[in-house]
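[Q] Does anyone have a clean structure-token version of this?
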Amino acid sequence: MNSINIVHNNKIFLIFQFFLQTIMARGPKKHMKRITAPKSWMLSKLGGNWTTRPSQGPHKLRESIPLSVILQHKLKYALYAREVQTILADKDGNIKVDGKVRSDFGYPVGLQDVITIDKTRESYRVLYDVQGKFILKSIKPDEAKFKLVKVTQKKVGPNNVPYIVTSDARTIRYPNPDIHVNDTLKIDLETGKVVDFLKEEPGNLCYIIGGNNIGRVGLIQHRERHLGSFDIVHVKDSNGKHFSTRINNIFTIGKGKKSLISLPDDNGLYLTALEKKQAREHQEETKKQ
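[A] Here you go.
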């Protein structure tokens, strides 16, 4: 009888131990398999089992891309991760993100971040295309001196100090009283100060940063207010197509029709399969002529 009770107790202990192992956290995860990486990175399935997991930083894991993936797969400056570490560990400070030298190969680079490579005199801005994939838009040195960020929070802190939080995790104290949530700030990367701001209002040019219409560019038409739910913004692109999205996906990039940043090659225009075919045929006809 005692032996039966001992076996029964051992089974209960093993089950309880297995249950604890499955629910208890054992520190932050440090690895990422290629199959679980975000589709926006555009990694091939046959390139290996593992990829670089983004470090903790100003952008969320699913909304960022690590520096190693950019140098190895986007810019083709390295064949292996070891070469990426060599490039980033150089004392000359080869790679700068938003004007600051970054040596962490897993540093998360997100939307609107500016990557500068002094030795090659190249500057890139991280954007989305209309398929939701990360692209590096080559920009001129004058445009690489600033970046656009979106205001995500506006609060009053201790000692009644007003402050705002931006999409790249910046905290700015004593902002302009006219700046509100969902507005866009133009920040000088050398000083970190706000140079100008854009209101989220009808008539301004916006860039979609999430949802089914990610990567599209158009003019804000009007805003539907839904109390207790998400406000819906209606947008019209340069081809005359209308679409709508949540206000959280709206990123104002210009006053009126003029954009403050260089747009991707597709200009933020979504084309159907038929429209793409017609555009190719038109290009072929112009070449023959």
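[Q] Thanks! Anything notable?
[A] The chain has three domains: 32-139, 144-198, 205-254.
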